[in-house]
């Protein structure tokens, strides 16, 4: 409890709370979250088609393989070539072929191109492939 001296030598109690330490802590937390938030997002712009399926469980560290509109491949945040994909996947999954690979493609990418990438994944023994789409709500509410 704080006190202050007034006229004479009597000590009067001060009932005010010092909020400066609380504000300092809150500002530090704000800065931490402002720095950490951009690191938690994926910065690859892909226009995903909508899906009416039920969303499945996602692991803590998913392996994202993205097909961009220009048919370039991106594993996580790193651009990869078709020839470099097997080595990059082995590095990302630590050689575990049972790891689920989340495949997402821009809706302008043809079905044939998506199938080629899926066949490539199967050729290198990655058989657990999850296709990613946008959630569009309950069945019956989405367009044709």
Descriptive report:
- The protein has 144 residues and is α/β, with parallel strands linked by helices.
- It is built from three helices and nine strands.
- The protein has helices spanning 20-39, 85-93, 111-123; strands at residues 2-5, 11-14, 50-51, 63-67, 73-75, 78-80, 101-105, 129-131, 134-135.
- A five-stranded mixed β-sheet has the order 6-5-4-7-8, with helices on one face. A two-stranded antiparallel ribbon has the order 1-2. Strands 3-9 form a two-stranded parallel sheet.
- The longest helix is centred in the N-terminal third of the chain and has 20 residues, at 20-39.
- Mean pLDDT is 79; it is low at 139-144.
Average pLDDT taken over every residue: 79
The largest sheet, given as strand count, sense and whether it forms a barrel, is: 5 strands, mixed
Q: How much helix is in the residues?
A: 25-40%
Overall body shape: elongated
Taking pLDDT < 50 over at least 5 consecutive residues as the criterion, the unreliable ranges are 139-144
Arrangement of strands in the largest sheet: 6-5-4-7-8
Helix and strand content put the structural class at alpha/beta
Distance N to C terminus: 69 Å
Indicate the radius of gyration in whole angstroms. 27 Å
Q: How many helical stretches? A: 3
């Amino acid at each position: 409890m704080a006190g202050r001296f007034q006229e004479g030598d009597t000590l009067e109690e001060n009932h005010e709370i010092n909020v400066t330490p609380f504000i300092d802590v809150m500002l530090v937390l704000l800065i931490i979250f402002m720095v950490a938030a951009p690191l938690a997002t994926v910065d690859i712009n892909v226009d995903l088609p909508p899906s009416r399926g039920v969303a499945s469980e996602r692991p803590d560290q998913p392996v994202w393989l993205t097909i961009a509109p220009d048919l370039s491949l991106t594993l996580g945040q790193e651009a990869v070539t078709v020839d470099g994909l097997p080595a990059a996947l082995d590095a990302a999954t630590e050689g575990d072929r049972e790891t689920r690979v989340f495949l997402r493609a821009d809706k302008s990418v043809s079905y044939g191109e998506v199938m080629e990438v899926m066949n490539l994944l199967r050729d290198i023994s990655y058989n657990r492939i999850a296709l990613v789409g946008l959630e569009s709500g309950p069945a019956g509410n989405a367009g044709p």
